[in-house]
């Protein structure tokens, strides 16, 4: 822990942060102590609603957040056994995400911060996915190398400190989760398809189909997934035209294996070239069984230590936002009531 942070944390003990997360299709509230200990965490998912449309409908997401946010707030307070006066600060995901969805959380948090007279802390959603690891591993501290794979992002990030990070690899097109969901949709699975591919892949053979492994010239840590998705779509289309059967379990196993190989090979190369031995992963796609197994075996092979949150902390939740908020607050980040939400924002930037 850097010297300046040690000093501050000695002064601020038992800082309880109430956080909100509404960036996509989960309305969540949580209370976390000192960035590490979950006191309460409530997630209300809208997945059943969006399933009907094969993906998240932004307008519906905003409306459902508006309906659910009071409920998740009250439930998180009730489960914590705390009073609002016990809370030291209010945090919220302010970027990136669906703008209308983000605004629900941002405005709710602003109102609460103003009425309760508590500081307001804006948090970057992807920084939150990294911070999920601080909740799971009490001794984990930067610097480390991190793979973030979610529905909207696929990054390899050098995490220099709790609030300073630089991206060294990214996707050139679809994010890993987006690729999973699009391929799953083509195979007839419901949204979100990542979990269905995961389940089917466990029954399939990963050496049946040869999917492309794109290499981006001059960008050794970047990935591209749109070719994999197109491969799946074309394969299914051709089989249908010829009246041939496709073994979906095998196709899922091959697709999952290709995504995992693309992510893991870049991550291992980056670890070697930048000299990291501490490897961290986060984001919804890190719930994937094949990815977790591949990371575990590669890290063991190279004698790296690996940190991946439990599956429950990989997907969107507010506890990870509260955790990151703690470190943002210690580094001096707070917002005024003019805080706005942003649909896009680099993880490298601070609020
Ligand atoms: O991090 P997340 O919950 O939300 C975003 O910030 O985007 O990630 C959601 C993504 C979805 O694309 C979902 O299909 C994918 O994570 N996902 C999975 C699995 N569980 C969730 N992908 C592959 N295998 C899984 N088991
Ligand atoms: Zn997320």
Question: Can you tell me about this structure?
Answer:
The structure is a single chain. The protein is α/β, with parallel strands linked by helices. Helix content is 45%, strand content 17%. It has twelve helices and ten strands. The strands form two sheets. A five-stranded mixed sheet has the order 3-2-1-4-5, with helices on both faces. A hairpin with a 5-residue loop joins strand 7 and strand 8. Helix 5 packs across helix 12 and helix 6 packs antiparallel against helix 9. The chain starts with a helix and ends in a 21-residue tail after the last helix. 48% of the residues are buried. The N terminus is likely disordered. 5'-O-[(R)-(carboxyoxy)(hydroxy)phosphoryl]adenosine (KG4) binds next to helix 6 and helix 7.
Structural class computed from helices and strand pairing: alpha/beta
The largest sheet is:
5 strands, mixed
Report the mean per-residue pLDDT as an integer.
95
Taking the alpha carbons of the first and last residues, their distance comes to 22 Å
- Spans of at least 5 consecutive residues with low confidence: 1-7
| Total of helices | 12
Order of helices and strands: HEEEHHEHEHEEEHHHHEHEHH
Radius of gyration over C-alpha positions, nearest whole angstrom: 20 Å
Bound molecules: 5'-O-[(R)-(carboxyoxy)(hydroxy)phosphoryl]adenosine, zinc ion
Strand line-up in the sheet with most strands: 3-2-1-4-5
Shape: globular
As a percent range, the share of helical residues equals 40-55%
Number of strands: 10
Strand content: 15-25%
């Amino acid at each position: 822990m850097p010297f300046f942070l040690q000093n501050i944390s000695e002064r601020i003990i038992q800082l309880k942060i109430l956080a909100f997360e509404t960036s996509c299709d989960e309305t969540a509230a949580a209370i976390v102590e000192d960035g590490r200990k979950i006191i309460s965490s409530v997630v209300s998912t809208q997945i059943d609603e969006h399933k009907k449309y094969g993906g998240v409908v932004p307008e519906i997401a905003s409306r459902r957040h508006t309906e659910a946010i009071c409920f998740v707030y009250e439930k998180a307070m009730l489960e914590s056994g705390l009073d609002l006066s016990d809370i030291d600060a209010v945090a919220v995901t302010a970027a990136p995400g669906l703008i209308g969805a983000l605004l629900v959380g941002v405005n709710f948090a602003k109102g609460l911060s103003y009425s309760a007279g508590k500081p307001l802390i804006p948090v970057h959603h992807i920084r939150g996915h990294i911070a999920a690891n601080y909740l799971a591993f009490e001794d984990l501290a930067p610097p480390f190398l991190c793979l973030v794979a979610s529905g909207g992002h696929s990054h390899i990030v050098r995490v220099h400190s709790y609030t300073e990070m630089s991206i060294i690899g990214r996707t050139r097109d679809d994010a890993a989760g987006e690729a999973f969901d699009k391929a799953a949709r083509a195979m007839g699975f419901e949204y979100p398809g990542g979990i269905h591919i995961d389940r089917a892949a466990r029954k399939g053979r990963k050496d049946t189909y040869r999917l492309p492994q794109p290499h981006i010239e001059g960008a050794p840590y970047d990935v591209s997934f749109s070719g994999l998705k197109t491969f799946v779509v074309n394969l299914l289309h051709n089989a249908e035209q010829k009246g041939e059967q496709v073994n979906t379990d095998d196709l899922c196993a091959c697709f999952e294996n290709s995504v995992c190989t693309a992510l893991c090979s870049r991550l291992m190369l980056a670890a070697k070239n930048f000299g990291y031995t501490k490897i961290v992963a986060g984001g919804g796609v890190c719930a994937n069984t094949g990815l977790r197994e591949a990371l575990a075996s590669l890290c063991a092979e190279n004698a790296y230590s690996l940190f991946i949150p439990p599956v429950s902390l990989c997907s969107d939740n507010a506890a990870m936002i509260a955790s990151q908020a703690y470190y943002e607050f210690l580094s001096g980040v707070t917002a005024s009531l003019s805080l706005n939400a942003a649909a896009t924002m680099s993880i490298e930037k601070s609020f």
